[in-house]
Amino acid sequence: STFTVNLALDVNASAPEAPALDAEILLVDDHDRAREALRTTLVASGARVLAAESTEEALRLLEAGAEPSVALVDLHLGAFSPSGPHESLHLARQLRQRLAHLPLVLLSPVGTPAPEAGLFDAVLSRPARRSRLLDIIRRLTRGSSPEARQRRSALPTVARDLRILLVEDNAVLAMDMQDTLDKLGFASVETVGTIA
23, 50, 78, 138: least buried by Cβ within 10 Å? Predict the structure, then answer.
């Protein structure tokens, strides 16, 4: 048997634009090119970016009154500095002490797990696809009100570390379940199905 399918596709049609990121992002990475590439991507997506190349610079930004919606921290921050290869963990702990409800994203090489369970809300493997980066930030900042962040930080560490796979082919039900999980503080949710 032979089946033929003819599709009339408009190859010049562009995909619908995703809504702009309405977030202020603290980006901490001591590698100039990587930091600038990520900053450029985020700014082009509508985000306001506070870029820092060290723990000290990031903390100065906070002391100056910065109120980021999410922080992106490179795993290898300070790997060659006198403070050692665990600078990213030191910064994450400092951020947790100062802004307990701030979502933290660890930027790491592909296949590298988070070095300390419960410290980061998400791990983004590099090189990261733009869509994956924006998806994580949108999910973490969707419930960026103080109340939502407080609910998320009140979850037991094991619950914060859960990665939930939501499979639903009904778009309305999928969005409803996603919203419910967001309200409960679960930021790491992968959705499979048709979501409009």
Answer: 138
Q: What does residue 134 show for φ and ψ, rounded to 5 degrees?
A: -65, -35
Q: How many Å is the maximal CA-CA distance in the chain?
A: 71
Q: Between the CA of residue 98 and those of 42, 101, 175, what are the distances in Å?
A: 24, 9, 33
Q: Are 77 and 26 in contact (CB under 8 A)?
A: no
Number of H helices, E strands in the chain: 7, 7
Each of the 196 residues of the chain gets a pLDDT tens digit; together they read 677 777 666 666 555 566 778 899 999 999 999 999 999 999 999 999 999 999 999 999 999 999 999 999 998 887 666 555 578 889 999 999 999 889 999 998 877 766 777 788 888 888 888 888 998 899 888 754 445 555 555 555 445 556 677 777 777 777 777 767 766 666 555 655 544 4
Instruction: Name, in order, each residue with C-beta under 8 angstroms of 54's C-beta and a sequence gap of 6 or more.
Output: 28, 30, 77, 78, 81, 87
- 25 vs 141: CA distance, rounded Å: 10
